[in-house]
Amino acid sequence: METSIPAGRPKPLADADTAPFWAAAQERRLSVQLCENCDRAIFPPKPACPHCVRELAWRDLNGRGSVYSFCISRMNFIGGYKAPYIVAWVASDEHPECIFNCNIVDCAIEDVRIGMPVEVVFETRPEGVTVPQFRPIREGAPA
Ligand SMILES: [Zn+2]
After folding, report:
1. pLDDT tens by residue, 76-100
2. Cα(21) to centroid of ligand 1, in Å?
3. 45 Cα: distance to centroid of ligand 1 (angstroms)
């Protein structure tokens, strides 16, 4: 699923650690690092496991999670966004220690709740960059 987005939203700046995350998003995959030594998932990306300092491998997630926290932005602080909109932190179902800062899209601001089940949706911005966002999982809706 993809949403249509106005121009002017900030473009993520990939660095050596985050480039694989953004490359996966460009291919509509939500990917995090896993440590095969201590079996932990790591997000945001790091150069090595912060727990055991071993090398990390990238793995795709199923894209499902729940709203960990959120706020409603009622002012136009950032270009390309029209208030009000939802800024949220979504915890992965598979690895709840991985929390994604995002917007909740396709959701009325009065409907968002902590713990609400959500799924990833990929927002391709007019500038060509693709950003993972999340939307409510609607029971019975096609995936
Ligand atoms: Zn580790």
Report:
1. 888 889 999 999 999 999 999 999 9
2. 19
3. 13
Ligand 1 midpoint to CA 40 (Å): 6
- Whose CA is closest to 112, among 134, 91, 139? 134
Cα–Cα distance list, 109 to 25, 63, 106, 136 (Å) = 25, 22, 9, 12
Domain map of the chain by residue range?
A: 14-136
Q: DSSP letter at 136?
A: E
Contact 107, 136 (CB under 8 A): yes
Q: What pTM was estimated for this model as a whole?
A: 0.90
The span from the CA of 57 to the CA of 30, in Å, is 14
